[in-house]
Design brief:
The structure holds two protein chains of two kinds. A two-stranded antiparallel ribbon of chain A has the order 1-2. Chain A is mainly α. Chain A has two domains: 38-123 and 184-296, Orthogonal Bundle (MetI-like fold), CATH 1.10.3720.10; 127-179, no CATH class. Chain A has helices at residues 9-36, 53-57, 62-94, 97-108, 115-125, 131-146, 170-179, 186-211, 215-222, 227-238, 240-255, 259-264, 272-282, 286-335, and strands spanning 39-41, 47-50. Chain B is α+β, with helices and mostly antiparallel strands. Chain B has two domains: 6-234, Rossmann fold (3-Layer(aba) Sandwich), CATH 3.40.50; 238-366, Nucleic acid-binding proteins (OB fold (Dihydrolipoamide Acetyltransferase, E2P), Beta Barrel), CATH 2.40.50.140. In chain B, the strands form four sheets. Chain B has a six-stranded mixed beta sheet, with helices on both faces. Chain B has a five-stranded antiparallel beta sheet with strand order 13-12-11-14-20. In chain B, α2 crosses α3 and α2 (94-104) packs parallel to α4. Classes of the chains: A mainly alpha, B alpha+beta. The interface between A and B is medium-sized, with 26 and 31 residues.
Chain lengths: 336, 367
């Protein structure tokens, strides 16, 4: 009811500064980037005449693969972050008040170190002679042994030196495993992205979980729910807003991720961010980089927009159905 | 004992150094409206939580219809709770809140709809079925919480101070409604409260609890008229205490000698001997306050004391007097059965007579 009311003058005034800020530093730059895509480029790195040549260049068959890979990895990273952050947020919110602040502080502690330094540290940790690599080898060998009975279902595509998370027949795979490193692979990118973005997932969920009324879980159990059912049906919907913010907080930086694949992805994991960097800085083709950025944004926001529109329509439909149902309920109640 | 409907068998629960429930044994009958009454922190909520399965006793067992339920988790007992803050699921509609337990039990869809619709009708909330809890008033939330707990017919319904969050008028209204619901569904209700008025008006029986122990378990009238301890007498209603020693015995009656007060005659229902120390409780409404001494035909055996009015509090239904008698300050209620202004008014510092029949005093504690 409240959201249909017209905002008052005071409300307008309060939102004005942030509106101006967004227009100046978000909307206008985004439009400039969009405008660049309809220009050609000059040899010395400038923006050329109006032309559709940039969009024509984009037909490169590599791009759909890279866009898809970026989206897929972002989804993977987001899923891992949410999955790990959910029990964390729950556990922190259930701690005694004094401990909550301490643990929340500990989660934010890595931010005191530069992001690039932290990613660089992972380079050492994932070194081919390091213990993480040793563990990874052991894991691969175990997996091959476990699935040794499976016939060669997999066509090896990855070259030497790339982690490949697929099933390989027993004969070829032992050698393959020996050559497989975590560093310079997709596994490293996902791992370090999850590490980097996890606090951004925990924090909004924890904030929501702290406001959650835990007696609701008790009520659910009282009415016959098992612990996990209560967690799923009551806790998760209860902190839904926090989960949505967490998804956005992780997914959006993951899509634009550039430092992590650059430092740890090697040639196995080149994402759209790296391509944009290459076009802008190495090829000095700003319009082309702009077109890639636009392509990425469109391929994320269009499906999101469709999903939101669909949900709204669904909600309106549900409302209508409930109105009919209430009328029925009232009618039968009156007859008795 | 195990054959009774619901049994607490020597149940003890400690939280650190605090003994919240201290060796409590209780039996509750099927279909009863049973109240656990006591001041906050007396252990009544802990008793309820042990019955709900949220706490485990340190020792003792709990039996429901002959089955030991002490170690069962909450979701495996057919015991539902109406929480003090209602604990309605905010993300679900009223209808889904009520259907929660039925859906969990995987009842057929038609049955769920029929049961939820009919209980919504019973609590007169059909038109609110598709609202969310935050769109309801306190009294409506209360009714939904009760419906949600009752819809799958539990063996016992636990109510944890369910009316505490409501204002006075609504509370009185909900009292009547709760009573009606209990009559309608015939399920055993266990009601936890610190409000003696609620407990008295609703319950078949009351257990008065203090420091984790049951002080008295009886019907409301017995609790009020024949309190088992000084605590019960003072917690339920107002009373005057006279501590003294039995001085002489005359048939069914005895005389109690208190320091700083004339001898008091009292009914010796406990057949106590001379020299016994006792606490006598006399309720304020049992004490008459008059300007003139009672007429002789009222009986020679009654207690009459000359005193002085110290304070008067007009309450509408009655007036409360604080009266100085000997070294005692005694409270007495005078009901206004006739229009007040017709009567000869008693005012401050008047010399008055206090009197009550020996049967109206009750010896609560024997030391």
């Amino acid at each position: 009811m409240k959201d249909s009311a017209k905002p008052s003058r005071a409300e307008w005034l309060v939102t004005l500064p942030s509106f101006v800020w967004l227009v100046l530093f978000f909307a206008i730059p985004a439009l400039i980037v969009l405008a660049f895509t309809f220009h050609g480029h000059t040899v010395n790195g400038g923006v050329g005449e109006w032309s559709l040549s940039t969009w024509r260049e984009l037909v490169d068959p590599d791009y759909p693969t890279i866009v898809w890979k970026t989206i897929r990895i972002s989804f993977e990273v987001t899923a891992w972050c949410i999955l790990l952050a959910l029990p964390c947020a729950y556990a922190i919110a259930r701690l005694p008040k004094r401990w909550r602040a301490i643990v929340a502080g500990a989660i934010m502690l890595p931010f005191w170190t530069s992001f690039v330094v932290r990613v660089f540290a992972w380079k050492t940790m994932l070194h081919p002679d390091g213990w993480l690599q040793t563990c990874y080898h052991a894991y691969l060998h175990f997996k091959y042994w476990l699935f040794a009975w499976v016939p060669n279902v997999h066509v090896p595509t990855a070259g030497a030196g790339q982690a490949n998370d697929c099933l390989i027949g027993i004969a070829g795979c032992a050698i393959d495993a020996a050559k497989t490193t975590i560093i310079d692979s997709e596994v490293a990118v996902v791992l370090v992205s999850v590490y980097s973005f996890l606090p951004f997932a925990i924090m909004p969920m924890y904030t929501a979980a702290e406001k959650f009324d835990f007696s609701l879980l008790e009520a659910a159990r009282d009415l016959g729910a098992k612990n996990f059912y209560a967690f799923r049906k009551i806790f998760i919907p209860g902190i839904w807003q926090g989960i949505v913010s967490a998804v956005l907080m992780v997914f959006i930086p993951a899509i634009g991720s550039y430092v992590i694949p650059q430092m740890l992805g090697g040639t196995d994991c080149i994402l759209i961010g790296n391509k944009i960097f290459m076009r802008a800085m190495q090829n000095r083709n700003i319009p082309h980089a702009s077109a890639l950025a636009t392509l990425m944004a469109v391929s994320v926001f269009v499906p999101m927009g469709i999903a939101m529109w669909w949900k709204k329509r669904q909600a309106a439909r549900d409302r209508k159905r409930l109105e009919v149902r209430t009328a029925q309920l009232m009618a039968t109640g009156g007859m008795e | 004992m195990k054959d009774d409907f619901l049994v607490f068998d020597h149940v003890t629960k400690r939280f650190g150094a605090l003994t919240a429930v201290d060796d409590v044994s209780l039996t509750i009958k099927k279909g009863e409206f049973f109240s656990l009454l006591g001041p906050s922190g007396c252990g009544k909520t802990t008793l309820l939580r042990m019955l709900g399965g949220f706490e485990r006793p340190d020792s003792g067992r709990i039996y429901l219809e002959g089955n030991d339920i002490t170690d069962l988790p909450p979701n495996q007992r057919r015991v539902h709770t109406v929480f003090q803050n209602y604990a309605l699921f905010p993300t679900m509609t009223i209808w889904d809140n009520i259907a929660f337990s039925l859906k969990l039990a995987k009842r057929p869809k038609g049955e769920i709809e029929e049961k939820v619709d009919s209980i919504l009708d019973m609590i007169q909330m059909s038109e609110h079925a598709w609202k969310h809890p935050n769109q309801l008033s306190g009294g409506q939330k209360q009714r939904v919480a009760i419906a949600r707990a009752l819809v799958d017919r539990p063996q016992v319904l636990l109510l944890d101070e369910p009316l505490a969050a409501l204002d006075l008028k609504l509370r009185q209204h909900m009292l009547i409604e709760l009573d009606a619901i209990h009559d309608q569904v015939g399920i055993t209700f266990i009601y936890v409260t610190h409000d003696q008025g609620e407990a008295m008006s609703l319950s078949d029986r009351i257990a008065v609890i203090n420091y984790g122990k049951v002080e008295q378990l009886d019907v409301p009238a017995k609790i009020y008229e024949a309190p088992a301890s000084r605590f019960v007498a003072s917690f339920i209603g107002d009373t005057n205490f006279f501590s003294g020693t039995i001085d002489s015995i005359d048939g069914d009656y005895c005389t109690i000698q208190c320091e700083g007060f004339p001898a008091i005659k009292a009914y010796n229902d406990k057949n106590l001997a001379v020299g016994q120390r006792v606490d006598l409780s006399v309720r304020p409404e049992k004490i008459r306050v008059t300007l003139n001494p009672p007429l002789p035909e009222k009986g020679a055996g009654i207690n009459v004391f000359a005193s002085t009015v110290q304070d008067i509090v007009y309450q509408g239904v009655y007036t409360k007097y604080w009266i100085k008698s000997g070294s005692f300050r005694i409270s007495a209620f005078k009901p206004h059965s006739r229009f007040l202004l017709d009567q000869e008014a008693i005012t401050w510092n008047d010399n008055v007579f206090l009197w009550w029949h020996p049967d109206d005093g009750y010896m609560v504690e024997v030391k």
